[in-house]
C-alpha cells in the first residue's frame, strides 16, 4: 500500500507563504525547514483523509448492523 495518496505539484502552496518569504535566501537550513513543514502539512492532510474514510465506513457499518435490531 503506497504511503502517498496524492501527488503534490507545488509543496510551497501547502504552507504559509510568509514562511518562505521570512527565510533568508542564503540560509539553506531555513529553506529546508520550510520545505519540511510543507511536507508535514501534506502528510497530515493524507492522514486526515484516511481517518475520514475509515470512520465514515465504520459509521455506515454501524448503521447497517443497527438495522437488524
From TrEMBL:
Belongs to the SCAR/WAVE family. Coiled coil: none annotated. One of its GO terms (biological process) is actin cytoskeleton organization. InterPro entries: SCAR/WAVE_fam. Transmembrane segments: none annotated. GO terms for cellular component: cytoskeleton. One of its GO terms (molecular function) is actin binding. It comes from Sesamum radiatum (Black benniseed). This is Protein SCAR2.
